Amino acid sequence: MNLRSRFTGAMLLVWLLSPNLCAQEPDANTEASAPSSETSSSSKSSEAPLYPSRDIRDKTLLAKVLDDEAQWLETEHGKVLALYRPTEAKVTRGVLILFHAAENPQLWPPMLENLRANLPRYGWETLALSLPQKYPAAIPARPSSSSASASSASADATAPETTEPAATDPATADDSAASSAESASASSAASSSVPRDVLIETYINAAFTFLEEKGQLNRVILTDNSSVFQVLEKLIPQVQENKRDKDTLDGPLQALVITNLQQQEPISKSELEAIFGAEKLPVLDIFFTPDNPEQTEARDLHRAVAMRKKLDSYQQLLLDSQPKLIEQDHQSFLLGRVRGFMQQKADGSETNSSASGKNNEANTKN
Question: Is the pLDDT score of 167 beyond 60?
Fold first, then answer.
């Protein structure tokens, strides 16, 4: 069962067990009990929701479904959900860290989930983290229970005296209260004073700390074009050529995979020059169809900057978007290309963090 199916099953279970959603509408023949129903609805509306926000609810449910993979990483800005899959082979070659600008892991494209779930079969561990989106999705405002009551009172005041006040639907009131609480929490998170680049740096540090504790220092980073600059801004200057072995890199990563999934967010020339600032760092730059004129221009720019920065190993691929790609496909074309690139450019053995410290010197064969 894939990640989306398991998450959907968890959501369905919560829906069935939720007292607010399971509330029954009052029978039309029991209008005399309307006051007591309104009182009961009012008490339910005042109850605190199970989760402070929809985002926290989704991630908590996903962590319960994937309890063997879910890792809550501690940061100065709160806990971050990461999905970690250890190796499923006799030899551990390294780890692929996947960063994607989608708030919830269950919203990741199937192609990324295909890599995350299947690379451990070939000796590559995976650690996946969702990053804050560049443009947070706007949450439509919904009327709160207080505004609904005010509107009802206003309508009653203007109605004729012979007109009876309309009965309040308990289920609607409960749903409105819950939605109001979730919207308020989401709005508060969106208006946080913590800049996006600071949050991303915090998440990266948490991921590296987690891997260091496991002695895994042979790292390859995969990130999308929406967040690649923020992810690599502080990492690229740390990548240095090993003085003793020119085939080995010293630094926090051994290779880079860029997935250009958001065509509406092209990487600027200045950002590319910073991203391609480590001459010895192997780069796999993946684009997906349809290849429109805007993307063709972006591909040409990527290649030109890579050549001007004299990258030793730059590969650019144009792959079919594979809309029918399923997460369980162990032999997908994308999986084969990414795995082949890592084995050729970053295949090695991890070293213990106590032996190499923060220099992250990995025994890697490029």
Answer: no
